[in-house]
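User: Before I run my own analysis I want an independent prediction to cross-check against. Here's the chain; please return only the structure tokens and, at the end, one sentence I can use as a sanity check.
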Amino acid sequence: MVESIASIDFTYPSCLSELTLGTWIDFTNTCKDVDANFAAIMAKPDTNRKVIELSANRIERAYTTLAFFAQKDLSEVKDEYYVEDAVLLYEERIAKIFEVIPKVEWPYQWNNAAWLLPFPFLTASSTMSFGEFIDSKVLSQNAEALEQSKWELLQYICAIFLRHIDEPYNEAFVDESNGRYQSMRVLPMHIAVAAMNFFEELNKFITENFPLFHESDHKEGAAMKEHFKQWGWVNFLKSIAKTKVFDIPNGGMNSIECARSAKCYEVLIFASEEKDYNLAAQADMEAMYKK
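Assistant: Structure tokens:
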């Protein structure tokens, strides 16, 4: 299952299914300085000096990889292993680990339970709640503000959307002290990648199919993208709750809780229709004043 190269006396994952999300998060965080250095070098004009710096960065990345998986200090592996072995490990093994994504059979059996991801294309029959969608967007916004990696964000996304069959969403899943969130660290990496692909497809589908997220041709119509950038998704949740459209009489929940529990599809349809109505009313009003 696991291989070693030449004089390198430790084991490392040879495919995604042998790697966990938590290990990959730790590895990418270890490589932050190397990544930043690479980005800085790539921004420079193409010169012989740039070629030399890229070569040095390549070696540093290889040694950083070696140190991480060998669980040794960087200085120790530089003294102990040849450059050729370190570079071979990184470029022939670790760097290629994402080239083959194992096929996932759903429901996926893991941790003594069956797990599923929802269908990324929302319809009237979709059970995804507005709350889980909002939480995913708020956490994405927070990750960007905190300069977290996409892999750190992915742990939250997995905690939200990867669930047992017929299991309802619980907002406690994304609490960092919660067992569900913590368990996602040991999630096999190919399942985490499937969750990442799902989230990308979901966002793409929603952006393309709900007018709420479309740029307006009307000169006074502010783009919702800018609204969310300025005010955030929490404000969007509050604006939906204020309408009380999704309130459940005698349900024992306030308007925000009712909006969160509503179907995501229904909320986005309502908000899209509301936006289109307001833009049409505004256009008619301006046309009347121009007469």
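Sanity check: The CA atoms of residues 16 and 190 lie 5 Å apart.
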